């Protein structure tokens, strides 16, 4: 679709692009002849802009355990990539059945839930992610932005064009966003063969050093290729990263020279995979539940992941006592397993017994005080146990940390509302809208917060600064075009 854009429509789209999205003032002008070399900071500014559109219009997975998992896995690989020093990374999952993963400028790496579902081991997922991380660390995206502006510009334009339409007509916009996003990914990420080779080489090295099984690279490529035979359209990842026999053999030869995998797979990977698997409809959900439950009752359900699946389905079907019993058993077997611990807490919350989750959440939080799923689940349990003030304090401690999930501001605003801190509710809503790219909405919330904070000098100063910051961004956009 991108090649069909005429240069006229391109200019038109681009002109509106930067005036509509939440651009930071520092966003570089890609087309100017003076900016031949894109600095890391400039690349970051472009990425920061993209992610706002991603957050606003793509169906992201917000499950705190899944968000935490994909970031842990990502950073395990980043640590083993020698060129990743001083780079920022942020990993996210898109609820999308297709097989795809991609890197945006600035270290933002997205993985479709369909890719996680298709991976049979953590090594397979690590293979794809290690490859995408390498595209970032080797500056393949930045170089494309520099050298092949004719390709990246329409990509950027169509991507953000989707946002423009969406702001006026949400339904059409999201549809356009989906195609534009695919188009953008393809244009941005159709790397040269050399770049692909380099990403393969560095990605496989990083995953092997992190303890994963390097042979999974070749294995997963092959599996994708085989799956493709019956499809009219290959998986997106293969369209943007064409695989041929040479590439598979290269990967296999490289894997043979590497040490044996220490941790080829993990229980966490399979548990998260299960969490991301949604039953397609109520009927399927009940059928799956019935079959697992029958085996469980016959003492035939020995697989831990299947037991966990049964617990999740039980909770969903409001068989709360069953869910709690299974999860308590799983947690007792592995008390260091964060997924079991948080899932048990969630089951208590769903059963409207949130106070039973408080003691073990609190004690675990002492060991890992910055764990995102722990903070979110503990705060939720506190609010539901009528201790919203304590939840407010906890969330205030963490919501403003760098790279924090915007969802934390939403929960914070709920805690503030329940505990009577009304002017703070608007402030947190404003922060949430700001972080997800809705500047006008954020402005309205900060203005409300300002009027409500009549007698709080500090709060007024804070609101005024925030309003000024947004107005500055809006002014910069107006003068730029
Ligand atoms: Zn690639």
Question: Explain this structure to me?
Answer:
The chain is mainly alpha-helical and 481 residues long. The chain has three domains: 2-256, no CATH class; 279-366, Serine Threonine Protein Phosphatase 5, Tetratricopeptide repeat, CATH 1.25.40; 387-481, Serine Threonine Protein Phosphatase 5, Tetratricopeptide repeat (Alpha Horseshoe). It is 69% helix and 3% strand. It is built from 24 helices and three strands. It has helices at residues 7-20, 40-57, 64-79, 113-118, 122-137, 140-147, 149-168, 170-189, 193-209, 215-228, 236-240, 245-256, 267-276, 282-297, 304-316, 320-333, 338-350, 358-367, 372-384, 388-398, 407-418, 422-435, 439-452, 457-480; strands at residues 90-94, 101-104, 108-112. The chain has a three-stranded mixed sheet, with helices on both faces. Strand 2 (101-104) and strand 3 (108-112) form a beta hairpin. Helix 7 (149-168) packs antiparallel against helix 8, helix 9 runs parallel beside helix 12 (245-256) and helix 21 (407-418) runs antiparallel to helix 22. The protein starts with 6 loop residues before the first helix and ends with a helix. Residues 1-35, 149-155 and 160-170 have low confidence and may be disordered. It binds zinc ion. Zinc ion is lined by residues 131, 135, 191, 196, 199, 241.
